[in-house]
Design a protein that fits this description.
The chain is α/β, with parallel strands linked by helices and about 210 residues long. The chain has 2 domains: about 140 residues, Rossmann fold (3-Layer(aba) Sandwich), CATH 3.40.50; about 60 residues, Orthogonal Bundle (Arc Repressor Mutant, subunit A). About 55% of the residues lie in helices and about 10% in strands. The chain is built from 10 helices and 5 strands. A 5-stranded parallel sheet has the order 2-1-3-4-5, sandwiched between helices. Helix 3 links the parallel strand 3 and strand 4. Helix 7 crosses helix 9. The longest helix is centred in the last third of the chain and has 15 residues. It starts with a strand and ends in a 5-residue tail after the last helix.
Length: about 210
């Protein structure tokens, strides 16, 4: 039996995933959580075979939980299930330790296939992500500006590129406005951009907002 923990702040998503997974005789959703902190505490105390995490959650987000669990339980397979397209996060999170990356548009059979695959100790990588990984590792040139950002910087970069205000980002990430402003300044410096307009143009040109 594959014991699965789901962490997603949308009840309808959790219920849908539970229904899809529990219909398989070899799978059981043993816990559901609305935020990353609760999921992290539960896994530490109880354990599971697969953790299925959303990226955007209040407080401790899926990226933070992934890093923490990968450090504490390196053998635990972690699947990321997100609204963000593969181009934005997949390669970055797989390199950070995720066993696979799925978008919330994935068909039910894809979700169950991915769970079985990572539970067996393998990676679940779509053809699109495999091509992106091959391109990245085969590239002869240095990193592009957005690839020099830390995971948190990249997350805030995408939110800024989506025209979210500093206050909106602070609320979404449960951090202070000052913290977001500091990150914004650092991001612009690293990427050698002057303002949000240039940042948004860069994201569009690199097809990071699709």
């Amino acid at each position: 039996m594959i014991r699965i923990v789901i962490a997603d702040d949308h009840a309808i998503v959790r219920q849908g995933l539970k229904k899809i997974l529990d219909e398989n005789p070899d799978m059981q959703v043993v816990a559901e959580h609305v935020n990353g902190a609760d999921a992290l505490r539960w896994v530490r105390a109880n354990g599971c075979d697969v953790a299925l995490l959303d990226i955007a959650m209040p407080g401790l987000n899926g990226i933070d939980v992934l890093k923490q669990l990968h450090e504490e339980k390196p053998k635990l397979p972690i699947l990321i299930l997100s609204i963000y397209p593969e181009e934005q996060y997949a390669v970055r999170l797989i390199k950070a330790g995720a066993a696979g990356y799925l978008t919330k548009e994935s068909a039910p059979e894809i979700v169950t296939e991915a769970v079985r695959r990572v539970a067996a100790g393998k990676k679940y990588i779509s053809a699109t992500v495999a091509e992106m990984l091959a391109n990245e590792f085969g590239a002869q040139q240095g990193k592009q500006p957005h690839e020099t950002l830390s995971d948190r910087e990249y997350q805030i970069f995408l939110l800024l590129a989506a025209a979210r205000t500093v206050s909106e980002i602070a609320s979404a990430l449960s951090v202070s406005v000052k913290t977001v402003s500091t990150y914004r300044t650092r991001i612009l410096e690293k990427m050698r951009l002057r303002n949000n307009a240039e940042l948004m143009r860069y994201a569009v040109e690199k097809h990071l907002m699709e």
